[in-house]
Amino acid sequence: ALVALVSTPALAMEPKQIQAALDRAYEKYKGLKEGANADYIPVLAKVDSNIYGIALVTPDGKVYTAGDVKSEVSIQSISKVFTAAKVMEQSGPDQIFGTIGVDATGMRFNSIVSIEMSKQAFGGPEMNPLVNPGAIAATSMVKGNSRDDIFNTILSFYSDFAGRKLTVNQEVFKSESDTNQRNQAIGMLMYAYGYIKDNPQQATDIYTEQCSVSVNAKDLATMAGTLANGGLNPVTQKAVMKPDNVPKLLAVMATAGLYDDSGKWLWRTGLPGKSGVGGGIIAVSPGKFGIAVISPPLDEAGNSVRAQKAIADISNALGGNPY
Ligand code: DON
């Protein structure tokens, strides 16, 4: 499958047209003043709302950018994709399918009711690794000899996707650790119901740290580009994940990547995507491109306003929608 992907012409468009699509979307939404920074994690409210960067990576390893692709934000929920990927790599994809589930909850990303509904109304895992309960459970499944060993395994896996050594924003980690009582409760409830086998406090703590990893738009686009390229990082040429696991991960992103607005997103773009409350969104057009936009102001569902619009425009201009 990988050979087929790599030998297919990356995009029917010339580099100049790709760059023009990025530039157009950048200009079009630069002045947009909709949405607001997340503030339930106090330090996120202080991030510059004007940060706005676009990056796109093609399977031939070319990187296209527009705007600010140097400023870093915390990866937040986009991390959930790559931790789920690590669990699939270590324990096989059925570990996600069978013990967390791959269905949309239709509820907010930190819904406690969704845990109750999954357990009681349907009698099995009607959850997914991209909402907080499923993500904390996924983190609990990453193997390692100690708390720090597990975290370092996660961080170096993310770094392989990004093609550079990523680091943690300690201020964000502290701010969220001081205020994440709701996630601690979610971790404990997931433990009570058997999704988490051991040490839920540690799982929530590692999850909180993974959400605090610092990324710029180019990092995120390279991570998405690796998924667009069957798990082979197109910039570094490192095989980061098994090609067979990629379509499964993309399926979960298509189902639940933008939370309760995932259907609207798929309607507009046809692309598996993932958002984070730091303001980033990634999207993947398999065999064609990985794209990322960072812009901190969010809509009601917790998704970056500019990032949603810019990615939709660019993908539509480039024929990214596989449907
Ligand atoms: O657990 C949290 O609430 C955050 N660390 C991540 C949430 C998030 O990014 C949801 N995104 N739209």
From TrEMBL:
Q: Looking at the keywords, is Cell inner membrane present?
A: no
Superkingdom in the source lineage: Bacteria
Q: Which residues bind substrate?
A: 77, 132, 176, 183, 207, 259, 277
Q: Which InterPro entries match?
A: Beta-lactam/transpept-like, Glutaminase
Q: Which reaction does it catalyse?
A: L-glutamine + H2O = L-glutamate + NH4(+)
Q: Which Pfam family, any one of them, does this sequence belong to? A: Glutaminase
Q: What is its EC number?
A: 3.5.1.2
Keywords attached to this entry: Acetylation, Hydrolase, Signal
Q: Enumerate the Gene Ontology biological process terms.
A: glutamate biosynthetic process; L-glutamine catabolic process
Q: Name one GO molecular function term.
A: glutaminase activity
Family, as annotated: Belongs to the glutaminase family.
Note the NCBIfam families from the entry.
Gln_ase, PRK12356.1
Q: How does the record describe its quaternary structure? A: Homotetramer.
Protein name, as recorded: Glutaminase
According to its UniProt entry, this protein's organism is Microbulbifer aggregans
